[in-house]
Design brief:
Layout: H1 2-15, E1 28-33, H2 46-60, E2 64-68, H3 85-95, E3 100-102, H4 108-115, E4 122-125, H5 139-146, E5 151-155, H6 165-169, E6 176-178, H7 180-193, E7 200-204, H8 215-221, E8 224-227, H9 231-236, E9 252-254, H10 266-277, E10 281-285, H11 298-309, E11 314-318, H12 320-328, E12 337-339, H13 343-351, H14 355-360
Length: 363
């Protein structure tokens, strides 16, 4: 299994179709973007910044750009708070271009608006998940969207671990490619799997119990796995559906939690710091405690700072909470790579591929 993962992974960089190889000049180009972000605080999120190079490239090619994306979990209902209208305004300010917005995804109105686009224009369509067919991975929904454009670009790495219409069905219906950021994500994360600097230390933390499902896969290529956040509590529960590998106990260090379970103990912090200081590659997924609350930020602060203090290591972080914590601590420029995807990053590292990558490669 280990060898197969690496062979699969080696083919990705060569076999993923690239934007630069696709004829997009003057064409209607559908871009699947990552816009599941909070713009209410006046800060431009990483996912919007990450979209700019691909949009700039397309505008330079005089493409007519149709941006599709989702926000939140409306489950097919139209929820005003989950509209992409405000996000599209932030995107417009970020790239310095006027962007039109359509409060529908498919239908006559959408086609009319797109029909009026001039070369170099951009339009953002409403939340894909306002239509339940998106999450049902419905082919007819993908066909309706495909009819709006002439090419498809996946610039949504963070969503590419999900089998939804806009990620896995659209590439089969139009000439397609990965966006510029998408390729950078694969290249940087591949550095953990292909000829990495060792030892590899994974810091798996946060509050999502399903992260534990990746530990067995990580144990195949990692040298140490440090488990923090709320995850140690889940491991201790008899009801936990995730079992840690029993043959790699020395690889896995499980933090002790403080009495209120909102941070890891000083002794656990020190243990984690020791391992991170020796690392050649560090991957950070999730804060170590409830860092946003006073008195519960020590674990996150010390472990994140320990990662960036290791100047010899290749340092990667990913996930929305991780990104937020990095911002609060002022460490943004000190990681070699911050992935736009949390779950997608972990799945890519665990499996060497994603459904969205397989779809682009027509596998």
């Amino acid at each position: 299994m280990h060898t197969t993962l690496y062979l699969l992974h080696t083919t990705h960089m060569n076999d993923i179709p690239r934007l630069e190889s696709l004829d997009v000049t003057g064409k209607r180009v559908i871009v699947r973007a990552d816009l599941d972000v909070d713009v209410s605080k006046g800060v431009v999120p990483l996912r919007i910044k990450a979209l700019k190079p691909t949009l700039d490239y397309l505008l330079g090619m005089q493409s007519k750009v149709i941006v599709i994306a989702h926000k939140g979990k409306p489950k097919g209902e139209i929820i005003k708070e989950l509209s992409l209208r405000e996000v599209s305004q932030t995107l417009s300010s970020s790239i310095g271009r006027n962007i039109d917005f359509c409060d529908e995804v498919v239908g006559k109105t959408v086609k009319e608006k797109i029909g009026k686009l001039n070369p170099g224009d951009i339009i953002v369509l409403e939340n894909l998940r306002f239509n339940i067919k998106e999450e049902e991975n419905d082919l007819s929904f993908a066909q309706e969207i495909a009819s709006l454009g002439e090419c498809f670009i996946n610039e949504s790495f963070a969503e590419s671990h999900r089998e939804v219409s806009s990620i896995v069905k659209l590439p089969g219906l139009l000439p397609h490619a990965a966006g510029l950021r998408f390729i950078d994500e694969v290249r940087n994360l591949s550095g953990v799997l292909n000829n990495p600097k060792r030892p590899i230390v994974m810091v798996i933390s946060g509050v999502k119990e399903d992260k534990l499902s990746y530990i067995e896969s990580f144990s195949e290529f990692s040298d140490k796995i440090l488990i923090g956040g709320r995850l140690p509590d889940f491991i201790d529960q008899e009801s936990s559906k995730f079992m840690l590998p029993t043959n790699d106990k020395e690889k896995i260090i499980i933090a002790q939690l403080n009495q209120d379970k909102e941070d890891i103990t000083i002794r656990s912090i020190e243990k984690f710091e020791e391992e991170i200081a020796k690392a050649g590659t560090v991957v950070v997924s999730g804060p170590l405690g409830k860092y946003e609350d006073e008195g519960h930020g020590l674990g996150t602060e010390r472990i994140f700072k320990a990662a960036v203090a290791n100047k010899n290591a290749f340092k990667i972080a990913g996930g929305g909470d991780t990104e937020s914590a990095i911002g609060v601590l002022g460490l943004g420029g000190q990681f070699d790579w911050i992935s736009v995807g949390g779950g997608a990053m972990l799945e890519f590292l665990a499996k060497g591929t994603l459904p969205g990558i397989q779809a682009l490669m027509n596998i």
